[in-house]
Write a structure and sequence with these properties.
By secondary structure, the chain is α/β, with parallel strands linked by helices. It has 14 helices and eight strands. The chain has a six-stranded parallel sheet, sandwiched between helices. The longest helix is centred in the middle third of the chain and has 23 residues. It is globular, with a radius of gyration of 20 Å. The structure holds 5,6-dihydroxy-NADP and zinc ion. Zinc ion binds next to α6.
């Protein structure tokens, strides 16, 4: 296990009715910027609950709605402008990963005197941020307890992740009931996303039994509860287990001490940057193709463990087991969870951007478990295009 330092200062309030803790925001000032997405929080009543609590606590609220899935830098700029002109004290995001990520960079941009896109391109520019609070409404990204944010500039076909200790939320409210209204598509994509976070860490672990067994437990939790939530959206325990597993997949518990650079995420971010697709769907399509591409004599033992310990498969032929584990993942994503199974299904029907996307993904994944060249990534994109 490598050395690491881990500090997760986020207070989590988990469970039914925990939104009442929003009254604690008054300890951080008087003016809140409330950030939300395309309107789901107004339909399912979370907006009204939050506004009542903030009002009772004597807080003044400015609003920025309309944050897009794959949040845009233009929306971050709008939020920064509001923070600066209205002297905002703190930012509260209510929504999924896109809304929370947008709020994180707004909070950092409020303490920065140049264009916030610089903060996306160079995380060392983030030297301060307003306090960040959130109410999570979609179990997927883990942004509620991590330092990262992913922002898109579609005009340049660029989508980059940035990260800073200043962007770790101060408090996150995780009420599984708030995810009851998440669509089947987003429930499936969210499950694929948190599984990908776990697997990006898992396929690299050497002599890190603690992280490895935690990762296997998280994957089993997601594999068990994803389909229940999909078919029975108001099943509290399924939504609760997914939500908590998603948080742990990326908060450092399973990644620190063993994780190399991630590589499936940089590949997916290029697909979203060029085609604005749903993050979790892109990951579901790419992950099995990546696995088949990197399976070799050197990586065999990882795939054997994956088959045995995650999928409960058995057998003496290690190669057959390794392939069976990858097939089990495909069946789970594409049949059980109903996720798209190739790039054509998400509208990527030709290879015209493969070269440029692969070049950028290759730079973003330098140092990954199995190093990938531009040509390797083009081949993975091709494998992911097949029916
Ligand atoms: O915008 P609204 O109306 O709220 O609707 C959203 C959106 O259309 C909807 N939704 C969210 N909660 C809902 C709901 N609909 C009904 N009921 C609810 N309770 O779901 C749609 C997708 O929302 P979004 O926030 O885009 O999804 P997700 O949480 O999957 O976030 C994806 C973004 O996070 C980034 C991705 O790249 C992508 O930009 N990531 C962030 C990470 C991080 N900060 O650590 C790591 C991840 O790997 C990922 O890259
Ligand atoms: Zn992800």
């Amino acid at each position: 296990m490598y050395n690491f330092s881990l500090n997760i200062p986020t207070t989590i309030h988990f469970g039914k009715g925990m939104i009442s803790h929003l009254n604690e925001l008054k300890e951080y000032g008087t003016k809140v910027l409330l950030v939300y997405g395309g309107g789901s929080i107004k339909k399912n009543g979370i907006y009204d609950s939050a506004m009542n609590i903030l009002g009772d606590a004597g807080l003044e609220v400015e609003e920025l709605g309309g944050v897009e899935p794959n949040p845009r830098i233009e929306t971050v700029r709008k939020g920064v402008e509001i923070c600066k002109t209205k002297n905002i004290d703190m930012v509260l995001a209510i929504g999924g990963g896109s809304t929370i990520d947008c709020a994180k960079v707004i909070a950092a941009g409020a303490k920065y005197d140049k264009d916030p896109w610089n903060l996306v391109l160079d995380s060392s520019e983030i030297k301060d941020a307003l306090p960040i609070f959130d109410v999570l409404t979609l179990a997927a990204t883990g942004t509620e307890m991590d330092p990262f944010a992913v922002i898109t500039d579609l005009s340049k076909n660029e989508k980059w992740g940035t990260g800073s200790p200043y962007m770790v939320p101060t408090m996150s409210i995780l009420d599984p009931e708030y995810t009851y209204s998440v669509s089947k598509k987003q429930t499936a994509a969210g499950t694929a996303d948190m599984m990908s976070h776990t697997m990006e860490n898992y396929f690299s672990m050497e002599n890190a039994d603690c992280q490895k067994f935690m990762a296997e437990g998280l994957l089993r939790t997601m594999i068990k509860n994803g389909p229940i939530a999909l078919n029975d959206p108001t099943n509290y325990d399924a939504r609760a287990n997914l939500m908590w597993a998603g948080t742990h997949a990326i908060n450092g518990n399973v990644g620190e001490g063993c994780s190399p650079s991630w590589c499936v995420h940089p590949m997916e971010h290029e697909l979203s940057a060029f085609y604005d697709i749903t993050h979790g769907e892109g990951l579901a399509i790419l992950t099995p193709a990546w696995m088949e591409y990197i399976l070799s004599e050197n990586t065999l033992n990882y795939f054997v463990d994956f088959a045995r310990n995650v999928w409960g498969l058995s057998g003496d032929d290690e190669w057959a087991l390794a392939h069976a584990g990858i097939d089990a993942l495909k069946k789970f994503f594409f049949e059980t969870m109903g996720l798209p199974s190739n790039l054509k299904e998400v509208g990527i029907t030709d290879e015209k951007n493969f070269e440029i996307m692969a070049q950028k993904a290759c730079e973003g994944s330098e140092g990954s478990f199995v190093p990938l060249s531009k040509e390797d990534i083009i081949e993975i994109f091709r494998m992911a295009s097949r029916d």
